[in-house]
Protein 1
Amino acid sequence: MVLDPQGVAVENSLIALGYKNVHKVRVGKYIELILTAENREDAAIQVEEMARRLLSNPVIEDFSCTLQEAGV
Amino acid sequence: MVLDPQGVAVENSLIALGYKNVHKVRVGKYIELILTAENREDAAIQVEEMARRLLSNPVIEDFSCTLQEAGV
């Protein structure tokens, strides 16, 4: 869990606009990509590595990865 | 499908760093929030409305919403 000033700003805007039943808004990045790999395990390892090493800033961001098989 | 210069930049960086098996990178926003609602249908309508009216810019962005029930 990290600080998220953008989430707080969006939450305040939503509440000001009448959505008073909204709580704990968090804003993050979403990255989607196609990866060719030998198998699901290789794909998972590579995606986790990209996320950790390049796509996220570990000081201020958490990340999670999900895979979806596309077939050949 | 909309133009995504940030996705192109991330793709080029990943390839330059050795991930040559990466294609079609797209970068977007991810917004997570807790909503109290009478039922799942009300929640879906409200979330779709927030996304359409406030959280996305329809000229340059697509969006999709998913719900997860938290219980009481």
Note: Chain B has two domains: 1-30, 33-72.
Protein 2
Amino acid sequence: MRILLVGAGGVGSAFAAIAARRGFFEALVVTDYDGARADATASAVGDDRFSSAGSVDAGDADAVAALLAEHRCDVLMNAVDPRFVMPLFRAALAGGVTYVDMAMSLSHPHPERPHSETGVKLGDEQFAMAGEWEAAGQLALVGMGVEPGLSDVFARYAADHLFSAIDELGVRDGANLEVEGYDFAPSFSIWTTIEECLNPPVVYEKARGFFTTPPFSEPEVFEFPEGIGPVECVNVEHEEVLLMPRWVDAGRVTFKYGLGTEFIDVLKALHKVGLDRTDPVTVKGVQVSPRDVVAACLPDPARLGDRMTGKTCAGLWVTGTGKDGEPRQVYLYHVVDNEWSMREYGHQAVVWQTAVNPVVALELVAAGTWAGAGVLGPEALDSVPFLDLLTEYGSPWGMREGG
Amino acid sequence: MRILLVGAGGVGSAFAAIAARRGFFEALVVTDYDGARADATASAVGDDRFSSAGSVDAGDADAVAALLAEHRCDVLMNAVDPRFVMPLFRAALAGGVTYVDMAMSLSHPHPERPHSETGVKLGDEQFAMAGEWEAAGQLALVGMGVEPGLSDVFARYAADHLFSAIDELGVRDGANLEVEGYDFAPSFSIWTTIEECLNPPVVYEKARGFFTTPPFSEPEVFEFPEGIGPVECVNVEHEEVLLMPRWVDAGRVTFKYGLGTEFIDVLKALHKVGLDRTDPVTVKGVQVSPRDVVAACLPDPARLGDRMTGKTCAGLWVTGTGKDGEPRQVYLYHVVDNEWSMREYGHQAVVWQTAVNPVVALELVAAGTWAGAGVLGPEALDSVPFLDLLTEYGSPWGMREGG
């Protein structure tokens, strides 16, 4: 396997560090809009399978396809922000290679009723091209990070091995991370966090289909495991709600993010002022996207690992009827302690947890354990080899009976 | 009197519209960094005493001094944001003319103890040059808007006519303005509001001198008159606290601004993210000041008048001992109804209320009623002719006995 890794930011460089310990691929070529960052990521791992292809515009499908050909890659690993999903997805299709991403094509709200009906949903543009991938016999594995990604693997595991009927698949994400020396320092890309949190959250109900709500709806306090404790969670637009119902039978699918009150207040304020906007404003003669300015004001989350303490938890709360016909609730989860990920890999917990999952997935694809054609979510494939291999990577998952 | 008006934004253009109804000056020359805006302000009033000097950089004292000479002006009226106080103040001194502003030179926080001690205070740079103004026999009338400005006139009035001893001079500013069609639309310059509200508030106590507190300290609900009602007010850095103790004897001087909880939350969030910063950040290769981006995202407050409803109140709450030796409390105030200011002048209430005061002051200077040399605050001069002339302008002030 020869992998073109597009994106050498926090998640991309953690992907490289994790992959470097595994033998399943022959070459990993790194590229980024910042060529120096690609060079640094390729050389940091000290592994001669790694090289840099320098700078590329991820929005230029032809340029990316040319890199795939030049480096004879058979996998395009997308580790850039979701604005670039479609050009990279098209480049991979055109290049005849396997495609993996960790976030799906962006949504567009319903023009009249954004807070009750869906418009263009997350991934719609990708699934619209599923026939072309099937016809070409190519695999696009979409939403293959931690959330979406591992959470979807958990859904498949619950359906196959734990439940006879599922009432609700409820992704619940929470952390107790703190960053020393900063009033406010998000541990994940603020661009993506704004996109997720300010778009109208989408909910799936079997009887009703997909629908939306106002942002930050249905607040609930969820108790996270391994000492993280209670965190206030709210509905957020997320890929799992769109992916899981395609392959797993459930009465309801939700995603709630443990943002905490302070973070929610900041996001609401940014939205009030219009600083979440991505279309440019003119400031003293120069054009800038306000959301890019927000990102530029904050520290790079990938560089905060050595000032962070705490754990991050991704998981799926499943309610329904067990295999024995009795009511059952479980919380399937994966916790990463920042202290561990920094010591072991030099990458902070949130980006490490995102990056490990596509490495595991690609190892299964390289081995032929995971195979398919078309546009598939993680829940389309067998969960057990994935969960076993994740444990073999030194990062086990857990299950809490009773939800 | 020949006036050079520097700044044709909201307050500058309201100043022009108010002055146009008065006969005390011979010429008013408008200039702005945006020459077209200066032209528009000069021509909007339809008065041949008005002309435009086109574009100027208010930070270039030599260029401003050259305009003063070219147009034979004897007054420089500063209506730009307080970043430009010092170059304009110097241009007026060099040009031998009278200077009027509505905000004083900026503060710099104490480097080690910003939330308990003052550093460079508002106006310090101006007062440091007072000797030069005195020696030249020239008048610099500083802080001559509504707050500072009319509030300072009220302080002098209270000391001369209502109290034998003053415990506290407490400026209290509140409004019930709403802007239709906007989630969030400040009715005054966001640049200046951020500056005022996020700098450490300054408080004066006779026994202790000047000291600072953390932002948004000492919240209190103040009941505003004429139907505005209760508004939550917090300590804010403001010129009155520095000006009043220079000429009026009081035990304590405070400024509390009725920001309301929503506005405070937005300001706190902007500060957390660092969007209140004025030093530039690099965003995809271009340099921008985050605070300028915030301003660019919001509607221009000067253009919101026809969507606004409600009233704005500026006032001074005075507590102490009355002339009869009994305890006394009064609230001296000035309310502008946006519906009235839009109908009468086509300018919204907040900018109109700021702009009317320097027009009244200059009319008193033109008549010789107000005269002096040096750097003077409004409380250095007789309050009665000012309050009478303000009433003659159709905008009376009020007094509520009991505070």
Note: The first strand of chain A starts at residue 2 and ends at 6.
